[in-house]
Amino acid sequence: MHTFVLVAPLGVSSPPLTYQTQSPCERGTLLEIPLKNKHILGVALTPQTQHIGFECKLAYPSKYEFLPIQKLLAEFIAQYYCCSFSRSYGLFTPKLITDTFTTQAHDEPITPILALSQAQNDALAFLNATQNPLLFGDTGSGKTEIYIHLIAQHLNNGQKALFLMPEISLTPQIEQRLQKVFGDKVGIWHSKITAKKKQEILTKLQNGTIQIIAGARSALFLPIENLGLIIIDEEHDDAYKSQSTPRYNARDLALYLGKHTSIKVVLGSATPSLSLYANAKKEHRIYRLRGQHFDSKKSYIFDDTPLYAPSLIELVRQTYKAHKQSIVFLPTRAHFKTLFCQECGQKVQCVFCSVSMSLHLDKHAMICHYCGYTQAIPKHCPKCQSQNLQSQRVGTQEFAKEMAECFPTMRVGIFDRDHITTHSKLQKTLKDFNDHKLDMLIGTQMLSKGHDYHNVALCVVIGIDYVLNTIDYRANERAMSLLTQISGRSGRKENGIVYIQTLHKDFFTPFMQDYEKFLAYELEYRPRFYPPFVRLANLGFAHKLQHQALSQMQEVREILETLIQKSTTQTKNIEIVGAKACDIERLYGKYRYNILLRSHSANALIQAIMYVKECVKFSFEIDIDPLSTI
């Protein structure tokens, strides 16, 4: 006798559909379903006990299955981030069902190569004894070695480990450090590896050959049986937050697993995010690891003079003559952020997005860094036809050109997303720099991502004021975290100099060697109507027709206003902060509007959003706990 079940198709845009199965199946079971003349995977949701008044196609058992922790997390993602089950389950890589039961091989006990210092041993003991602990360790304090000892403990207990990092931090250095201790038990997972390599990793993960996965946020969705440890390195990094539906935060998902399963979750950062720090401090979950593992010191030079100041050129000259290396940070890739007219002030903007285009002299083109639209460099102002167009803000390539003119024999590399387009290019550039085949590395925020440069004696930071002056409630935090992380790239084993070009020396100076002091300052002075004091949700509306996007936003705003006014439940405490055009009003040819909601309760926001979804016939973007309000 056939039974009926509601199935969420995976990998396609479709609502749940009803199918017949030859036997009852549990929620979360993977099925092979026919849809539009092809067979795809779907996940079983609700059994249908009532009589179905129409003919249903037959669904078959799949050769794949989700692990219990994958089902647990998929259900939570759908509920918390207000997305469909097709979207939430679609994030996960299922496990191949086999007849044989594989167990982790019990080799000789693993012993990390480097012994821990007393401070590191104390930190390790705290991490082992605390639920969801935060390792707040200064740059160069030896956090990675503590992670290695943690991993060894869990592998020796017959468990697997997951080491999550922002994707750009997945460097040869991390691979080598893990493989030096754990050998071929380590698998590396990120978006740049081939489909063939991914399949090889999945096979080795299932048969027990691979026991450690080091990867970007997507590695959290792999079928890792007997998972005992999750490490979230650089937990402050925005890369853990997905920018497409569902807009999950991998760090927060790992913490959810840490609270609802027996998996040990450890977070680490030299610049922890304020929200996580505030919660962890309240619950006494922080271990503060101070100082550097190596005896080295930094000196800081603040300068408010023009870009190529004589003092900066002299510092670069001294570093080069001493056969040491320099790194230079700029917030802008390519040559400049934009071209603007000296006569009328008009900027050259993308025809599909309401943002300025970036000048790329090497390609003789203007490129939109949002949608990729490319056009020739204009000779006249698009508004007043003046030929007086000038560039605004220096970029990586122009700085490299200036250094080449000042120091013709200096070997200069560029480390930004225009030049580092593949993982192999990333590996080669970092290897060349570590092998001292490059004397200077110029880059954008990619430079701050935990790379270990032992011979760097000079760190130059240009344009940090652009980050500090953005109109976002986290501007102070972003700027201070970025500056601290970049500064940490110099003087790792020997003394180093950090040169900072800024007009805000008085703001940065008190916190340069004490990030915890900055966190205390920010907790005191950040407005109480922003996280970590409240919860936020952002609703986005986009349409090619401006009036349509505006109409959708207005309809949702009216529904929310009525709900808040009439409600006697916790949804009455929701506040509509704003309903307006986005700061970048047009993107990818679509007009964009948003509604920002605020409440002390995340559940209240979720209830209200789910209510709105039932009331309207159109879809809209939902971002719970957005990292930015611009």
Determine the CATH topology of the largest domain: Rossmann fold
**SS summary, helix count:** 17
Derived structural class:
alpha/beta
Mean pLDDT: 89
Distance between the termini: 56 Å
Strand order of the largest sheet: 10-11-9-12-13-8-14
**CATH arch. level architecture of the largest domain:** 3-Layer(aba) Sandwich
Task: Tell me the β content.
Answer: 15-25%
Find the CATH superfamily of the largest domain: P-loop containing nucleotide triphosphate hydrolases
Instruction: Specify the helix fraction band.
Output: 25-40%
The rounded Rg comes to 26 Å
Tell me the number of strands: 29
Please summarize the sheet with the most strands: 7 strands, parallel
Q: Outline, from the CA principal axes?
A: globular
- How many domains make up the coordinates? 5
Identify low-pLDDT runs. Answer: none
Domain Helicase ATP-binding: 124-290
InterPro entries: DEAD/DEAH_box_helicase_dom, Helicase_ATP-bd, Helicase_C-like, P-loop_NTPase, PriA, PriA_C, PriA_CRR
GO molecular function, one term: ATP binding
Keywords: ATP-binding, DNA replication, DNA-binding, Helicase, Hydrolase, Isomerase, Metal-binding, Nucleotide-binding, Primosome, Zinc
Q: Can you walk through the features of this model?
A:
With 630 residues, the protein is an alpha/beta fold. The strands form 7 sheets. It has a 7-stranded parallel sheet, with helices on both faces. It is globular and about 85 Å long. Helix content is 30%, strand content 25%. The longest helix is centred in the C-terminal third of the chain and has 21 residues, at 546-566. A hairpin with a 4-residue loop joins strand 18 (358-360) and strand 19. Helix 3 crosses helix 4 (143-156) and helix 13 packs antiparallel against helix 15. The protein contains 17 helices and 29 strands. The termini are far apart.
